[in-house]
Specification:
about 400 residues, alpha/beta, Spore Coat Polysaccharide Biosynthesis Protein SpsA, Chain A, eight-stranded mixed sheet, 14 helices, about 55% helix, globular
Amino acid sequence: MHFLLFLFLWILMLPAVAACLYLLGLTLLSGALPPQPASSRKLRFDIIVPAHNEEPVLANVIRSLQALDWPADQFRVVVVADNCTDATAAIATAAGAHVMQRIDPEHRGKGYALDFGFKASRARGWADAVVVVDADAEVSPNLLESFACRIERGEHAIQAHYGVSNTSASWRTRLLSIAKAAFHIVRSRGRERVRASCGIRGNGWAVTHTLLDQVPYKAFSLTEDLEYGIILGMAGFRVAYADEAHANAEMVSAESAARKQRQRWESGRFELIRNMTVPLLLQAARKRSLVCLDLACDLMVLPLSYVVLNVLALLVLAVIATLAQPIMQVWIWVALGCVAALVLHILRGWQLSGAGLQGLADLARAPFFLLWKILVMLRGGNRSKEWVRTKRENS
């Protein structure tokens, strides 16, 4: 009996300690990054907005992009209206965007829309780089400047901060703001500081035509953003982090919509874990690549709720083991060390999230959010790669 208890403690301890040490290291490296030198403001950009039935929100993002602090004749807003059955194309045209309509019932999904837009941009040969912004996003005016200054210094792929535009909508969106700040700001700052790759997060990222020529976009999974960031890493390219710019998007607060969205995200992430972790580790060993090693670690560290569950299970089992055999109390200290690392990581995320004191108070709801995540996990999700538009509050 004691042997089995000891075995279970080790099984729980190894992933918990590894994940918490990794998160603690990135947290300690998450100080503000140094400012970047100004660009020459000569680069040209195609801003690709992939859109599937986005008529309620599309005009807002086009207005946001048209207000960018960049010479108007050096960027284009290009909406890819992908398999749309509403007025997406007409609204985009009326708002002043260039519109490309894509109809392909057999190949549906954001990845295919991006591939279509990227190929068109490369064929035209006008832009130096493409930028991806979601149809429900709101960008900071310095977005293109933040990309341009890094491209001129030799970077070929850049990710801006991807935050939440409707933080105050509900307790759920405030918790998501904190989680995104931990995932996007805290971890990305740490990776940028050691010249690793922050990865691609789906919204607010750029890649040069030069890089697309070397590593064509072929990412069509449920998490096409993470997939392409990994493909770039395995090809020897990192994704730089533009801390001073953002592309914030609306997060759903309704339970049913949030559940479906979460199921799709996590199904796609677990698929990538199965398919890409070993190749990344082999590439890291073969090329002595910090970028590939960190991308593998990023995959192996599960979403924060799963890490919390792991640590709580370790703590409970450690208490049981200590009650049975007092000499086992060292396991309680190991579990409490993991708890401390997680608390620091989450509080740093809160500090950078902009959620304020209300967000701090909402952390008391985290156990309910954790229970909800468990139920979502047990229900499973739709693994279809078809582009399913998430119903938002204003649509």
